[in-house]
Design a protein that fits this description.
Shape of chain A: globular
InterPro entries (chains A, B): Class_I_gatase-like, Peptidase_S51
Oligomer: homodimer
CATH class of chain A: Alpha Beta
Catalytic activity (chains A, B): Dipeptidase E catalyzes the hydrolysis of dipeptides Asp-|-Xaa. It does not act on peptides with N-terminal Glu, Asn or Gln, nor does it cleave isoaspartyl peptides
CATH architecture of chain A: 3-Layer(aba) Sandwich
Mean pLDDT of chain A: 96
Subcellular location (chains A, B): Cytoplasm
Low-confidence stretches of chain A: none
Radius of gyration of chain A: 17 Å
Organism (chains A, B): Wocania arenilitoris
Number of domains of chain A: 1
Pfam families (chains A, B): Peptidase_S51
Strand content of chain A: 15-25%
Helix content of chain A: 10-25%
Structural class of chain A: alpha/beta
């Protein structure tokens, strides 16, 4: 049975790394002593070791040990044997490229579908959707595919940002970009604002956190849903 | 001899489509009666016809006819025979995908390198660089490659945006994203602010417009260059 948290961000403004959801994570990871960390997204290009240290510091607060998948000779076995898995944010293209390069997509999909608890933040959440076609990141590497894990039957847009009505910048708003996605693709997209997450439990997909989320369905006007809303009807 | 304008944007705030550079374009396209328009980037998913109409309206102001490449049975021949070419903005991934699908990359590269005047705005400028790995767009389709025309020996970041120091949003700034690009790639990147363009004339690459541009070189602190600056030393 799937047991997943898909978070918009690791960090909210004015708060430490993962701090805003440590209570939730303490419950979520209650049966795990050690968390397997996937640091492949390398925010700002930091090393796998540095990034793992950052995650370890945060999880030490709730007495969890963190080990980086890059320290294992066989990363496929590391995923299969993990008590719990956390994929951190950074660059989604770099993350997906590395997952494909190490042949981890299928194993990760099977392992998490079979019940190993999985936490994703930002890029680590993007890959929980059907594709990374609604990522906000710069395409700094060319991955073998944009297809990802499909833990939920839609796409995620993390760090969802409302239009800045004062801006004189002519670049597209996030909403415009997601509408463009629907010129070429039909799956729904959930715009998750920073501080929101999806709690997947078997077939249930609940919106959690204090904020609303914005739902974009093909050929429909986008709409808001409240925290606590059940999203498993979307497809 | 290359004869190219690489513009950050088609439109600046409070002004009509292409209006801000019509004087420049009037001179640039002085020997062409008809401009071949490549509407493949389809901003907001509008049709090729609608987009071509928009370009035609703007160019009517300076007495130029505009024809869309999608109206030709043989788009390769259309490029070879064009008096001048304009590729408009929209989604860079959609644009590149369509150029590859129609086998136009090589022909476009050869034709423009041999002297057919080329104007690019936004996505149409991104493809003038080595790759689209510094595009700001959402990756809504998966193109066969991120490699592009290489009219200049570096990458373009159009719609370059300075960090908003008041923002509480935790998504990456443009500068952070370009620095991440340099964790995996070495070519320079030119951050072109809206209202700036590069004027390529043979081996000369001049920054034009009223604004400075931001230059990101591998392993160097980013720096600003003034309008009129010669960029052909970069590689």
């Amino acid at each position: 049975m799937k047991n997943i948290i898909i978070a918009s961000t690791s960090t909210i403004h004015g708060s430490d790394y993962l701090e805003y959801m440590l209570d939730e994570l303490s419950t979520f990871f209650k049966d795990a002593k050690t968390i397997l960390f996937i640091p492949y997204a390398r925010p700002s290009g930091i090393s796998h070791n540095e990034y793992t240290k950052k995650a370890a510091t945060a999880f030490a607060e709730i007495d969890k040990k963190v080990v980086g998948i890059h320290t294992f000779k066989n990363p496929i076995e590391a995923i299969k044997n993990a008590e719990a898995i956390f994929t951190g944010g950074g660059n989604t293209f770099v993350l997906v490229n590395q997952l494909y390069k190490n042949n981890l997509i299928t194993t990760l999909k099977e392992t998490v579908t079979n019940g190993t608890p999985y936490l994703g933040t930002s890029a680590g959440s993007n890959i929980c959707g059907l594709t990374i076609k609604t990522s906000n990141d710069m395409p700094i590497v060319y991955p073998p595919s944009f297809n990802t894990l499909g833990f939920v039957p839609f796409n995620i847009n993390p760090h969802y940002l409302d239009p800045n009505t004062n801006s004189k910048h002519m670049g597209e708003t996030r909403e415009t970009r997601i509408k463009e996605f629907h010129s070429y693709n039909t799956p729904p997209v959930i715009g998750l604002r920073e501080g929101s997450w999806l709690r997947v439990n078997g077939d249930s997909i609940l919106l959690k956190g204090k904020l609303k989320a914005r739902v974009f369905e093909y050929n429909k006007t986008p709409y808001e849903v409240e925290s606590g809303f059940q999203l498993n009807h979307l497809k």
